[in-house]
Amino acid sequence: MRRVFLILLWTMSLVRPNVPQAAGVQVFPPVNFTLTVSALAQVLLHWKPNPNQEQKNYPISYDVKILSPVPEEYDTKKTHSIRTVALHNGFSAHLRTLLLHNDLEMRSEWVKQKLPPLPGAPETSVTNLSCVTRITISSTVSLHCTWLPGQGAPPDTEYFLFYRYEMYTEECQDYIKDKWNRNTECRFSVTRIDPEEFDKLIVIHINGSSKYAAIKPLQQLFNQNAIEKVNVPRNVTVFLDQNDLLATWEKPVSPLPKECFEYEFYLFNLKSGNKQTLKISSNDFRLRIDVTSRYSIQVRANYHVCSTRGLWSDWSEIIYVGPSKMENRVAWILAVLCVSTCFTFLLVAIICKINHVWSKLFPRIPTPSNKFRDPFPNDYERARTCASETETELGSFAEDLYGSALDGSVF
Ligand SMILES: *[C@@H]1O[C@H](CO)[C@@H](O)[C@H](O)[C@H]1NC(C)=O
Ligand SMILES: *[C@@H]1O[C@H](CO)[C@@H](O)[C@H](O)[C@H]1NC(C)=O
Ligand SMILES: *[C@@H]1O[C@H](CO)[C@@H](O)[C@H](O)[C@H]1NC(C)=O
Ligand SMILES: *[C@@H]1O[C@H](CO)[C@@H](O)[C@H](O)[C@H]1NC(C)=O
User: Fold this and answer.
1) 148-157, 172-181, 330-339, 365-374 — which is least confidently predicted?
2) Whose alpha carbon is nearest atom 8 of ligand 4?
3) Distance between CA 182 and CA 391 in Å, rounded?
4) Closest atom of ligand 4 relative to the 251 alpha carbon
5) Whose alpha carbon is nearest atom 9 of ligand 2?
6) Cis upstream peptide for 69 (omega within 30°)
C-alpha cells in the first residue's frame, strides 16, 4: 500500500505542473486558431498570440498536438505550421501556449480545431491505389498509378486523379479504363518530380463524380524513393571463356553513378533445371559453369547505397548461352550423314576392288554362236542380241554381288 503511494507520488512529480498561473504570471491560450487547406493534402495551422499575454518578459512557444489522421506533437516558436497529410478523413489539432518562468514551464488551456472529412457516400472512394515512378531517358520522372473503383461506387462513376509535388499540382490526361469504361489507371509520361530528390512526398488525390452518389475523394502520400521502379540494366552481354561464363552490363538509366547499384543475376540451367540467383555489386562477373549445359540468364537492378532502396527493376531480356538443342540435333544429323557417306564409299570401293579381282580370276567366256537356224533372222536376231547383252551384264553384276558377299563372309 505504501509502495503504491510512493509510486503515485513519484509519477505525479514527473507530470509537468498544469498551472496557468504561477507567481503572479498568467499564461493565456493562443487566439484565432484556424486550419486552412492550402493545397492537396496540405493544411496550414495558423494562430495569434493572446493579446493579454505579456510576451516581452518571458519566452513563449506553442505546443501543437495533432490527433488525427496521424498523431503527432511538437513545439514551435512560430505562429503557424504546415502539415502534409491525407485529409479525406478530416484533420484534428489542439494548441496551447507554453511559457518559461524561472525554469518552470507553464502551460495554457488547449484550443481545438478540426477539419471535417471530405464529403461523399461511404465505400465510393477508390481502393488499392498503387503508384510507381521511373526515371526516363531524358532524366525526367514518369508516374503510373492504378486503383480499383470503390465497392459502393455506382457504375457511372468517373474518377479523376491529381498529383501534387511541392507546390505543383496537375490532373491526369492519360487514363486507362476498365471494361465498364471507368478510369482505373493513369499515366504521366513527364512530371515535375525531381529525379535527384529522394525524400520528398508525392501526393495523390482521386475524386470522382456520378449522377447517383457523391464520390468521396481519397488522398494518399507516397515517399518518392519508395515507389521508384529502378530501370532495367542495359546492354547485358554474356559469353563463354573456356569453362567460365563472363557477363557484363551497364547501369540502368539513372542520374546516380554506377557505384549506387546492386544487381541480381539469375542463372537457370536448362539441362538440369537448377536455378541460382546471385547478388552482385559490380557491373560484371565470372562464374565457373558446366559447358555442356545450356543456360538462360537475366539481370535486374536496385539501389544499394546513395539512396534508400527503390523497387527492383524488371528482369532484363532472357539471354541463352551454351549448346542449344537445335545445335545438338544439327551436329547429330551431320555426324550420321558423315558416317553413312563414309560407309557407302568404303562399300563401293570394296565392290570395285572385288569386281576387279574376280574378273581377273574368271575372264569372261565368249558366248557360243547359235547353231540352229533362226526362223526370223532379221529383227528377232537384233532383239535377241540386245537382250542377251543385258542378261550378261545383269548376270555379271549378280555374280559380283554374290562374290562380294562371299568375300565378306570369308574375311
Ligand atoms: C481574431 O479574429 C477576429 C475576428 O476575425 C478579429 O476581430 C481579431 O482582431 C482577431 N484577433 C487577433 C489577435 O488578430
Ligand atoms: C485490395 O486490397 C485489399 C486489402 O489491402 C486486399 O485484400 C485485396 O486482395 C486487394 N485486391 C486486389 C485485387 O489487389
Ligand atoms: C476534384 O479535385 C480537384 C482538385 O481539388 C477539383 O478541382 C475538382 O473540382 C474535383 N472534382 C470533383 C468532381 O470533385
Ligand atoms: C549499348 O550498346 C550500344 C551498341 O553496342 C551502344 O551504342 C550503347 O552506347 C550502349 N549503351 C550503354 C549504356 O553503354
Assistant:
1) 365-374
2) 235
3) 91
4) 13
5) 128
6) yes
Q: How far apart are CA 394 and CA 327, in angstroms?
A: 45
Ligand with an atom nearest the CA of residue 42: 3
Neighbours of 116 (CB within 10 A): 10
Q: What are the grid coordinates assigned to 408, written together?
A: 565378306
**Ligand 3 nearest-atom number relative to CA 209:** 13
- 275 forms bridges with which residues in the sheet? 268
Report in angstroms the alpha-carbon separations of 372 from 368, 379, 388.
12, 16, 16
- State the pLDDT at residue 385: 41
Find the range with the poorest average confidence among 18-22, 54-58, 112-116, 349-353.
18-22
pLDDT tens, 353-363? 777 766 666 65
Q: 219 CB under 6 A from ligand 3?
A: no
Q: Whose CA is nearest to atom 6 of ligand 2?
A: 128
**248 membership: H or E segment, kind and range:** strand 244-250
For residues 16 and 21, what is the distance between their CA atoms, to the nearest angstrom? 13
Q: Provide the 8-state DSSP code for 69.
A: S
Query: Is residue 104 scored above 80 in pLDDT?
Result: yes
> How far apart, in whole angstroms, are the C-alpha atoms of residue 254 and residue 83?
31
- Choose among 79, 115, 71, 72: nearest CA to 97: 79
145, pLDDT greater than 80:
yes
Which single residue is written with the C-alpha cell 537382250?
387
pLDDT value at 90 more than 90: yes
The DSSP symbol for 123 reads T
330: confidence class by pLDDT, cuts 50, 70, 90: low
Environment class of 56 (CB within 10 Å of its CB; exposed 0-12, middle 13-18, buried 19+): exposed
